[in-house]
Structure formats: C-alpha cells, structure tokens
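Input (TonB-dependent receptor):
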Amino acid sequence: MNLRLIILSTLLVSAVSAAYSQKDTTAVDDTTSNFIPLFIINDDNGDDNSGQVQNISGLLQSSRDVYAKQVGFNFSFARFRMRGYDSDANTILLNGMPGNDPESGYAIWAYWGGLNDITRYPEVKTGIASSQTTFGGLLGYTNINLNASSKRPGTRVSYAATNRTYRHRLMVTHNTGWMKGDWAVSMSLSGRYSKEGYVDGTFYRGYSYFLGIEKKLSEKHSMNLAYFAAPTIQGRQGIAVQEAYDLTGNNFYNPYWGYQTDPESGELVKRNARVRNNHVNYLILSDKYEINKKSNIKATVYYQFGRTGNSNLNWNNTSDPRPDYYRYLPSYSYNGGYTESGDMYNALWTANDPTTTQLDFNSMYFANSKNLYTVENANGTGETVVGNRSKYIIEEYRQDPTRLGIYGVYNNQLNDNLHLMAGVNGYNYKSENYRLIKDLLGGDYWLDVDQFAERDFDDPEVAMNDLSTPNKIVKEGDRYSYDYDIHIQYGEVFSNMDFKIGKSIDGYVGASLSATQFWRHGNIANGKFPENSAGDSEKQKFFNYGVKGGLIYKISGRHIINLNALHQTKAPLTRNSFISPRTRDQVVDGLSSSVITSGDINYLVRYPKLKARATYFYTMANNLTWSRSFYHDEYRNFVNYMMTGVDKLYQGVEIGVEGNVTSTIVASAAFTKGLFTYNSRPNATITVDNSLEELAKDKTIYLKNYRIGNGPQTAASIGLKYNSPKYWYIGVNGNYVTDIFLDPNPDRRTEEALEGYVDTDPQVEEILAPTELEGGFMLNAFAGWSYRMKDNRYLRININVNNVLNNTSFRSGGYEQLRYDASAIGKFPPKYGYAYGLSYFAMITYMF
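Output:
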C-alpha cells in the first residue's frame, strides 16, 4: 500500500507540473507587492526532534514569542512590518536552503504558497538571537523542516472558502511516518482558485505540490529528498490617485483591467493586462548524521529553477492607454482652463463608462488592425515586410532564476555549559532577464526599436535594441527590447557559541564572514551603448563580516532580562547596483557595502497563566543605495535616479502580554511605538536612460528626519478568546494603527525644487511636507470547533472574519509619485491603496 502511495504521488506531481506548464503563461508587474511573511504557529507541534542538539539557552525568544504571534496577523491589514524592517531582515531557511531572493533579499513566500501543511511548524526566533542553524538576521530567522519523518503520520484533507484573493482552496496531505524498511514519505497537493477576487478584474489560479522521501540509513544517519513548487497565475490589483476613487465611488477601483469582446460569443469579458505568473521549483537533498549523543552534522545540496513573469501594456507612437493617466482625469482639464473638456471627463468617470474608466481593449485591437506599415531591411536581411504593425501590445517582464548551492552545519554540546555551532553556506545564482511578446493584440508584428532614441538621435542605428538584428521583427513568444543575465556567487562561514555562567546567566556570541561577487552578462548589444551592453561586465566583489552577542540574566525563574547586539556589513543588492541593467553594465559610482548596528533590551515574564515581553530596540542602517527609473518632467526625459549614502534609523518599543483571566478565557494585548526615519542627506546622481549624459551629480537630498514609508509606526491590539471545555472556541481582536507615512519623493526635497519660491510661499510647505495617512481601527473575530471521532479521526471547523465593521475608508499604504511638477504639486498626487472591507476565511478539515 505504501509503495503504491509513493508511485501514485510521484505520478500526480508530474501530471500537475506537466499540465500546468501547458497553460497560459501571461504574467504581471509586482513592484508594489509586500513580501513580509505571515504564518501561524500552533501548540500541537508534532515534529520529531530526535537526534537534534537542544539549545542550552532555551529562554531565548522562540516561535511562541508572546508579541510576535499576535502582530503577524492582527496588523497585516495595514501592511505592518515588524520594527519597520524590510523582509530581507528575516533569514528564511528550508532544510538549510536560503529562502531569501539573492537579488532583492526578500523572502517570497508565494513561491511555496499553499503548502501550509508542510510549513506549519517552523522554528522561529524573533530579533537578534542565538541560532543552531544560521547567523540570522536583524529580525531573526525562520527554519522550515522539510524532512518527511518530521511530519505527523496520517492524512489531512481540508477545504477553505474565502472572499479575498482567491475563493476556494482544496488541500490534501499524507504523511506515512517511518515505515518498514526505514522509509518515510510526505506528500501534499493543493489548489486555489477564483474567477474574480475581492477586487474587480482580479483572478487567481494556483497549484502547489510537495513530495518528500526520507531514508534512514542507520540509527544515526538519514537522508531526505524534497521537491516542491507552487505555480501561480494571478490577475493583479493596482492603486490609483484619490480622484479616481472619488469619481468612481469605489475605493477598490482597479485600473489594470478592461472589457474585450469575445470572438466566439460576442460578449464583453473582463481582461487584466497585469498578470503575475510564477513557477519556481525547488529540489533539496539533505543529510543528517548524529556523530554521538552530543554532536551532529546536517548537510544540504539544493537546486532552484523556474520562471517568474509580470505582464504589462506597452505602446509606440500612440496615445497612453491607461485609463487613469493624469491627462484623462477631469482635474487636468479644469486646472488648464478647459472647462468643457473637464465636464465631459467628469461625466464619463462618474457614470463609470467602461471605455473611460477601464482599459479599452477593443480600441487597441482596432488601432492595431488599421496600422499598415512597411519595414525596409527587416531583420537586417534586406527583406521588406508589410503588415499591421502593433501600436499596443502586452509584454512580459521575465526574470527566470536558477541557483545551485550547498549548506552544512555542525552542532556540538561540548559540556553542560558550552554549545558550539559552525556552518557554511554557498551558492551560484543566475537570473535570465528579458522582455517577451505575450500578445500583439490583433497586429502582425512589433518593431524592436527604442522610440525615445528614434526621437533623440539622427543615427537610426542608435535606436536598435539589438545591433545584431537591425529593424528586428518580433512576434508573440519572441524576446525583445533587452536580454541579459545577472550572476551572483556567494560564500559564507558562520559560527555561534552558547554558554552558561552559573545558574543565573546564559549567553551567546556569533560571527559570520562572507564573500559576494556579482556581474551582468549582456546577451545582445544595444545601439545606444554598443561598447558596454554585450558580454560580461566588470565583476563587483565584496567581503563582509558580522558579529553578534547576547546575555540573559535570570532575576528569578519567572523574570528575565535579555540583551542582544549586532554589527555587520552587507553587500549591496544587485537590483540597486546597476544604473540601467536593461541597456548597459554601468554601476553606481562608489558602490560599497552597507553597515548595520543594532541592539535590543528585553524584559520577559513567564508564569503558567501569564506571559509578557517588553522590548526597546535601536538599529542604524548606513550607506544604503537607492535606485529608481521614471519620467522626469523637469528634464523631460526618462531618467535613472540613484542615491548613495542613504542612512536609516529604527528605534522603538514592543510590548506583548497574554494571560488567563479564567480557566476558559484568555486575554492578549500587543503594542508598539516606533520612530523610523532617514538619518542622512544622501547624494543623488541623475542620468538620462538612453545616453550617458549626467543631468545631475552629487545632488544633495534633504531626507534627514523624514519618516520612512513602510507601514504603521504605532500599533496596538487587544483580544479575548473563550476556550470551551466542549472543544470549541470563539474570540475577538480590536486593532488600531497610526503614524503611517508614504516614502518621500527625494527630488522634491532639494534646493532645486524650491528655486523661485520664498520661504513664505504656501507652495514651499506643500513641496516639503511629508505625506501622512490617517490611522485606522479594525475589528476581527474568529471561532472554531473540533470533534474527535473513533480511531483518532478528527473533524475541525474554523472561521476568521476580518474587518467586522466593514471599514472601507482606511488607506493602508501607497507612494508619492516620483514624477512631479514643482509649479503644481497636485498635478501628480500620491497614489493610495485601501484595506479590504469585511472579509472571511472558513475552513473544514478532516484528519485520519
């Protein structure tokens, strides 16, 4: 029976993967996505810890941290980030394989989303802490155990219904535990689907599969092979300026979709132009060897491969098709004195005319079908091509990663007072970056030339994106515009020593040494930069270090003081290192490692019926690099905007409390107050994207003391939960957040932006003032019931209702547009996103 299960699961995984690879691969821009992980840790941890060396400082903050387990979900409606950090501050491991993306540093949990049954019980430490697996990050680490033997034996089938991103989820998981012959198998399949999500024009199709096989070679030695992936196609939601929300009467207005006539039925159907398409595969081989009762070695070899894609509209020599383009809003006409035009747009917007408020695909198809065009010397062959040249297309930005790496860690309980950990981590990473034609929208071809270079240069060769193929004709499925690879090589050694001094003091020290090398390889020569666009760029090399330490003083068995400190340097991220990797290999001047210094002090209370933690934290992150590209109105060109010497300061307090009011009622509360600010006046260099011309160099940006725009800096939660002796529970949480700022547009905070104004001009305050959002309150409720049947079978039902009061006016985030007009700041106002109104998640689970 078990052998049949193994064979069947392998066939199912193969079939799902093959079927999915044949589906539509349209994808989407994901620049505004928040990658902060959210997960729930339960008490019923069934992991098998045999053979693992236990941490002698068991009182260091763990996965049951009283503060962290509350804020991870309760504040998620406001895009809350713990301590204000980006998610690259949290180190993610999957059986030793780093889960953080090498280029962005983010941990993109969507790459293994839907595998909740497999990732359910990670080892989590919050903040700077001792570790037996990694050096860790500012925010700690999460270590997910993928060994088949660590999963509780049995079968789990669940169905969930929700009105959020997707509507339905079906999940099946089976774990054998150790079988005859010393084999263990774990497998999981899930699917998530919605024709339309909470927001108009969005949809979701996602599948996830996992197969883990473990073989015990001896009582002290075992090996585990894990393979998993979570292919997902998702229609995306955009955010807009407040004027668009007000005109449509909808705070969830989505400009990314429009109607298109179905050629078969003749009916108008919704189509989203921005679709995310990811299918990243992971293959992880792990080995665990117990040398003796006090020491062990764990080693992993891993391989990552697959595709990531984001689709978007592109157009050439025609009008902007985006419905919320600023010239199509009534305010633009009114401000320009065109009252009649403003009244027309106002009437169309308030009537929600779909050809005005949404993308007009039928008009794009019509324009492409009427654009007969002749290309001489097509593809550099001398041939003449005549056909309908597409003015509008849907393109896909691809970033297809591969990574091969190794990881190893040695743990030894030297004596009752000393524990040693030492490890290595290294990988070779490559991402293929290119544009792909997804849909010609009824046209016959697209001409691969740079329309801005055609405008700015007399030499037609300069406009060629691929010099090897002048006047390149591209069709659906062809690469075009740019094609380059990013290579990253990384190696690290790290160590940690735990110690005890008497009965009252525990502590640890840790260190890390790492080397990073990265470069760009251009696969085509660009006409604008023929000398530095093809081939290997100069290799950028960085050597970095990190040291950390902590002490625990046990005032008594119930009261503890914990101190932690960290100092480290980190190589710059490749995404911020190249000025314009799409066109050339030029790097930011003075590129160097960032420097991070951090510390915290914690007071912990541990009683059987009361747990609490109070923390003060302080972090300086210095010498960061900031890189963006956008259209600059003052320079009337598409520019690359680079800032160096960006310093950030994070400080604040955290308080978490949980206690039993009665034997059945549990009360909990969490509070944080932060002050997250820019702490320097960085220098900016601005270059024209299609030339080497520098528009500005060492331009001083007055960012110091501006708040960092990364979610609420003050938040509070209070909750009550009733646990019935009859195996059901019900609870409620009230959550309030405030001190929410949008990240400042650096170019507005310069001397040049204020030229022509005197201090008393009202425009000065408008230009310099930070954008602050109003605070908001959310009430959440949850309930659950568990029923035990014969033969240890269980039936469980749980439901979560978020935003019970249906507050749809809370702005959860957004951004100041980088494009601005100093003479009329309101011309390009900030864009905002709103938190969902009442939403629910209900699940029924059967375990046997």
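The longest helix spans residues 2-21.
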